[in-house]
Amino acid sequence: MVWSGVGCYVCKKGEDNRSTIKPDSKTVIAVQEVSAAIAGSVSALITMPVDTIKTRLEVLNGEDSNNKRGPSIGQTVRNLVREGGWTACYRGLGPRCASMSFLATTMITTDEFLKRLSAKNNDGFCSKS
Fold first, then answer.
1. How do residues 3-17 score in pLDDT, each as one tens digit?
2. Domain total in the chain
3. Which end of the chain is more exposed for a tag (fewer CB within 10 A), N or C?
4. Is 123 inside a domain boundary?
């Protein structure tokens, strides 16, 4: 989907001949960064309810000064839904999407940089005499 937005796709050159457009390295990195940002946002959207419940459990468990156990997962979900409906599970989604997108983009960019750095031809280091 991102590649087609950039304009890199298979195009017809006649009836049976097909050729591909080979993108330059800057285009490849840009597409990978956009894809990473989209993937980070989607993963934040999917995992947000579970993370909200986990955070709620951690906070409620720390509030109890007695030695009894905190609320169960089911009780926490019911309380959360009762307080704000199912949309309460997605409070703070914008900042979380931004954070996850930034982290994914940084990881992909760093990975590509290190991959290209390590793939350079280092003839001067291992010269055979």
1. 777 656 544 444 455
2. 1
3. C
4. no
Q: What are phi and psi of 10, to 5 degrees?
A: -80, 130
What is the enclosing helix (H) or strand (E) of 7? none
In angstroms, the CA 70 to CA 36 distance is 37
Within a domain: residue 11?
no
Could you give phi then psi for residue 19, rounded to 5 degrees?
A: -130, 150
What residues does 20 pair with on adjacent strands? 10
| pTM assigned to the model | 0.67
pLDDT at 98: 94
Pairing type for strands 18-20 and 10-12 reads: antiparallel
Span 110-124, pLDDT tens digits? 998 888 888 865 545
Other beta carbons within 10 angstroms of residue 61's beta carbon come to 12
Residue 49 has pLDDT above 70, yes or no: yes
Backbone angles phi, psi at 18, to 5 degrees: -125, 140
